[in-house]
Amino acid sequence: MGELDAIDPALHDAYRLCRDLNAEHGKTYFLATRLLPSNKRAGVHALYGFARMVDDIVDVDVDSADVELETPAAAPIGTSVSQSDRDAAAKLDVLEQRVRNALGGGVLGSSRSDRVLQALADTTARYSIPHEYYFAFLHSMRMDIPGTPMFKSRYRTMAELDEYMYGSAAVIGLEMLPILGTSTNIADAARPAAALGEAFQLTNFIRDMGEDLDRDRIYLPTDELEAFGVDEELLRACRRSGRTDARIDRALAHLIAHTRAVYRDAEPGIDMLAPSVQPGMRTALLLYGGILREVEDGGYRVLIERARVPQWRRVSVAAPRLAATGWTMVRERARLRRPSLERA
């Protein structure tokens, strides 16, 4: 299947919506998907569309989430959880049932969220993606919603954070594997794929430290921060004053080094992928890894401003790999057209 050549008009529209969501909300990620062969992109967009829809619920973006409740979620007696968080938890429960319905071949409507689920169900069936990955993702997203039994706003250790990252990041890499294709046993490529998802997630946590603090979230493990004399009071003081602190700089340098080690664990897995997708995935790794360099070059000011990879750098990274993608596809087509010795 090409990027958007689904025969059914409704399915075509569903994939187009997912592509538009990717282009609007995931600019670095979308650029990397443009380097994938066209027949791989639609499935990747479907996975992104689903993740975006869940993020909109967790972030209480009602208009974008498009998952309705018949009545607002009731508050348990004595709870201090906000109505919006109760509704988010209830909407996630509703969405999980709708995901199960969609994956089971159930009838879907024409709402924005139903169209995303239609693309997700088609991609899942087309590539035989294990359903449990989606439910692991939803489990981790519940960890972000106050009032749910698994809610966490702080993580004491990296091991605690790993539980969250399995569902929020590692499974994204695992979902991608059947779509991208591998040149080796898919089980061998699973660990590096999961590591790449975790590396991307850790990069996000470093980049978004200030914004997450505004949402009363500290994802970076507190014991890693405390080892450098960093506590929540210091983080909030720097966020309010717009200043940096050498202790925070040292903690971030340590966490960046850890994240780069995770990228190194992930990198061998790219060679296990189908040759036609390797340039795109290397680009994603380099672009996301480039965020860490921007944090360093910007003086670790993540509590003051968000680090971004400049457009010129994105282009300089992507352009040679775009050429490599084209050359790889030309070679692959030539190989497929070449008669084998057995047929000669």
Describe the structure.
By secondary structure, the chain is mainly alpha-helical. The protein folds into two domains: 1-71 and 84-151, Farnesyl Diphosphate Synthase (Orthogonal Bundle); 155-323, Farnesyl Diphosphate Synthase (Orthogonal Bundle). The protein contains 15 helices and no strands. It has helices at residues 9-25, 27-33, 38-58, 62-65, 83-103, 112-127, 132-142, 158-180, 186-207, 209-214, 222-226, 232-241, 246-266, 278-297, 311-337. The longest helix has 27 residues, at 311-337. The two termini are 30 Å apart. Residues 315-344 have low confidence and may be disordered.
Radius of gyration: 21 Å
* pLDDT < 50 stretches: 315-344
Class of the largest domain, according to the CATH hierarchy?
Mainly Alpha
- What is the count of helical runs? 15
Major sheet description: none
CATH topology term of the largest domain = Farnesyl Diphosphate Synthase
Mean pLDDT level: 84
Based on Cα principal axes, name the global outline.
globular
Please tally the β strands and state the result: 0
Alpha carbon gap, first and last residue: 30 Å
**Category from helices, strands and their pairing:** mainly alpha
Instruction: Give the CATH architecture of the largest domain.
Output: Orthogonal Bundle
Order of helices and strands: HHHHHHHHHHHHHHH
Beta-strand content estimate? under 5%
- What is the CATH homology-level superfamily of the largest domain? Farnesyl Diphosphate Synthase
Counting structural domains, the number is: 2
The share of residues in helices is 55-70%
